[in-house]
Amino acid sequence: MPRLKDKVAIVTGSSSGIGKAIALRFGQEGAKVVVAARRLQLCEQTVSQIKTLGGEAWPIQTDVSDERQVERLISDTVNRYGRIDILVNNAGIGGGGRVVETSAEKPSIR
Questions:
Q1: Domain residue limits at 57
Q2: Residue 59 is assigned to a structural domain of this protein
Q3: Between the CA atoms of 18, 19, 25 and 31, what dihedral angle is there, to the nearest 10 degrees?
Q4: pLDDT one-digit tens code per residue, 43-101
Q5: CA dist., res. 64 & res. 45, Å (int)
Q6: What predicted TM-score, i.e. pTM, was given to this entire model?
């Protein structure tokens, strides 16, 4: 039996690279995978691959640097699947500095 059977997993940054590999594996292990990244077309490609391997997946365009989009990701996932069991925060942006001093506000570009 697949180890993640019927678990609901969100994987951010799952349209390519490590995030995509995680999403594909979760799909193989039976999870319902929410494929979240900035590039919807690439999310859809990942979803297609998961489905080809026999898994269940759903794409949602999400820029994790935008708090409203992250809130939508969470609420849409709960509306669709009723819960979230696994969250992989693979996508991210870096601006330097200490995490405890980081705010949700985007830095201004000079």
A1: 8-92
A2: yes
A3: 160
A4: 999 999 999 999 999 999 999 989 999 999 999 999 999 999 999 999 866 666 776 77
A5: 20
A6: 0.85
